[in-house]
Amino acid sequence: MAKKRNIIVGQSGGPTAVINSSLAGVYKTAKERGFHKVYGMLHGIEGFLDEMYVDLSTQIHSDMDIELLKRTPSAFLGSCRYKLPDIHENPEIYEKIFSILDKLQIEAFIYIGGNDSMDTIKKLSDYAIVKGHSQKFLGVPKTIDNDLALTDHTPGFGSAAKYIATSTKEVIRDAMGLSYKRKMITIMEIMGRNAGWLTGATALAKTEECCGPDLIYLPEVPFDIEKFLKKCTDLLKKKSSIVVAVSEGIKTPDGTYVCQLSGGSDYVDAFGHAQLAGTAAYLAAYLADKTGHKTRAVELSTLQRSASHMASRVDINEAFMVGGAAVEAADEGDTGKMVVIDRVSDDPYMSAAGIYDVHKIANNEKLVPRNWVTRDGSYVTQDFINYVEPLIQGDYQPFMVNGLPQHLVLRR
Ligand code: F6P
Fold it and tell me: Between 187 and which of 96, 280, 363, 398 could a Cys-Cys bridge form, CB atoms 3.0 to 4.6 Å apart?
C-alpha cells in the first residue's frame, strides 16, 4: 500500500493538563494509519503562518516518549489565541495557509482547541470546499472550561475539576485549623469564563470527612453582593471558618463582571474576551471591610489547568481517544467536523468518540443548566455532582525524577 501523505496538528487556546495526551493520540494513530510525516505547528495557526512547524518524529522517539507526553502539561507545541480573519477580509492569509499546506503535502489538518479554535477549523474547511482543496480539517475538543456544545464534556475539564476539588478540600482544612477564637472567610476564585462547570466542581470536596465549600457562585446566575454578605454573616454565626467558591466570571445583575468593580484589567484577547481576574480579591476586601473578620483570597489561576500531577485517568485516556478519532475521521474523508465525547453509561462510566459538524460548535458556549444550580443560586445540585464525579476518577502517576514530575520538552 502506498504511503499516505502528511498530516499536521496544532494546539490552540488555553492549555490543559491533558492537551498533550490528545497530541499523543494524533501522533500514534497517524503513524498506525500509515501517514508519512506528522508535523506539529508551533503556536497553532499563528506560528504556522510564520512557517513554524516541526516533524514530530524528531521529538517522539519511543512509546516511552508517548507516555511522557501524556503526562506533560501545557501545550507541548505552544499555543495561540489567534482569530483568523473572515475570508473576504483577508483572502491572502488563506492563500498563504493553503500554499504552505500544499508545499508540505498535507492531507489532514488537526486542531486541538476550544470553541474559539473551532472557528479556525470551520473557516479553513469552508474555504477548502469552496476553492476545491482536498485537505481535510478536523477539530479535537479541549478546554478546562467544559463549555463546548454537543460533547458530553471536554478533555481537560475532568483533570482541572479533580485538582480544584482536591485544593478545595485542602484549603478548607487549612482554614479550619486556624479559626480558633477568630472568624475566617476564604474566597476561592476558579476559572471558566462565562461557564461555571469548574466552580461547581468544588462541590466534590464534600466527602465523608470534609464539609465542602459553604457557598458556590457560578456566572450563570446574577450575583447579588448584598445577599452574598447576608449569607456569609449568617453562616459565621454558626461556624468560625467559611470557604466560598466563586467563578472568575460572576457578574452583578447589570452585567458588570465583579472583578471589574475594583478596576480589573483592560486586556481583551483576539476573540474579545476580557481578562478575568481579581474577583476573589475584590470580595475578600469587601467582606473584610463589612465584617471586620480576617479574609483570604485564593486565586487558583493557571495552577488549575497545568496540574498534570493531579490528572484524572479517565481524562487522559479520553483526551488520547479523541486525538486518535480525529485522525481516523480525516483519513476516512470527514472534514469540517469536531470529535465529541458521548457518555455511553454512568455506572460503570463508559464513553465513546462521536463526531459533529463544527459549524454547530464554533463560537458557542455551553453553560451549566439553571436547574443544576440551587434555586437561591448559591450551590450546585446533586445532578451536577453526578455528572462530574465519573470524570475525575483514577490517577495517571507522573514519572518522578529527583522528587519532581518529568516532562517532555520540545527540542529544536
Ligand atoms: O480558555 C480557558 C481559560 O482557562 C479560561 O478559563 C480563562 O478565563 C482563560 O483561559 C484565561 O486565559 P489566559 O491565561 O490567556 O489569560
Answer: 280
Which atom of ligand 1 lies at the shortest distance from residue 114's CA? 1
Contacts of 84 (CB under 8 A, 6+ apart): 45, 93, 119, 120, 123, 124
Give me ligand 1 centre to Cα 14, in Å.
5
Q: Is 334 one of the catalytic residues?
A: no
My answer on whether omega of the bond before 141 falls inside 30° of 0, hence cis, is no
Tell me, rounded to whole angstroms, the distance of Cα 46 from its chain centroid: 20
Map grid coordinates 495557509 to a residue: 97
Q: Residues 145, 147, 315, 331: which is the catalytic one? A: 145
Ligand 1: distance of its center to the CA of 311 in Å?
18
Residue 145 Cβ inside 6 Å of ligand 1? The answer reads yes
Which residues touch 53 (CB under 8 Å, ≥6 apart)? 8, 39, 40, 41, 42, 47, 104
Nearest CA to ligand 1 atom 15: 14
The ligand 1 atom at the shortest distance from the C-alpha of residue 81 is 15
pLDDT in tens, 238-297: 999 999 999 999 999 999 999 998 876 666 777 777 778 899 999 999 999 999 999 999
**pLDDT tens readout for residues 142-196:** 999 999 999 999 999 999 999 999 999 999 999 999 888 899 999 999 999 999 9
Could you give the CA distance from residue 156 to residue 19 in angstroms, rounded to a whole number? 7
Q: Which three cell numbers stand for residue 286?
A: 469587601
Best mutation site among 142, 148, 191, 276 for ligand 1 pocket (most ligand atoms within 8 Å of CB): 191
Q: Is 13 in the pocket of ligand 1 (CB under 6 A)?
A: yes
What number does the ligand 1 atom closest to the CA of 248 have? 8
Q: 265 CB less than 6 Å from ligand 1?
A: no
